[in-house]
Amino acid sequence: QVQLVESGGGLVQAGGSLRLSCAASRFIFSRSEMGWYRQAPGKQRELVAGITSGGSTNYADSVKGRFTISRDNAKNTIYLQMNSLKSEDTAVYYCNADGGRTWGVYWGQGTQVTVSS
Predict the structure, then answer these.
(1) pLDDT digits (tens, 9 = 90+) for 63-109
(2) Distance (Å, whole) CA 39 – CA 28
(3) Angle at 96 between CA 85 and CA 7, to 5 degrees
């Protein structure tokens, strides 16, 4: 059974930092590109950052220079280090594993990030 378990969300003041974690089942982790998405109230879900199995990364323009995605293959875990947080970063953040048509696409349950101004 594929599982993505997120942790690390919470309430932080503007300018502060948070680190999100997503632990995945080994089977899907090794076969997927991993990423973080977010969805703010009334808005569509959007890609925040992605990382391939080889470690290549991509970021939304709105978070470049502030957020860093990384993966620990030994722990089957990805992280999202979020610095210089802004009120507009407030959203539910979702972990995503994209194994394509062969292995499927999976989502975590979401973790709330609230940035107070």
Answers:
(1) 999 999 999 999 999 999 999 999 999 999 999 999 999 999 999 99
(2) 23
(3) 55
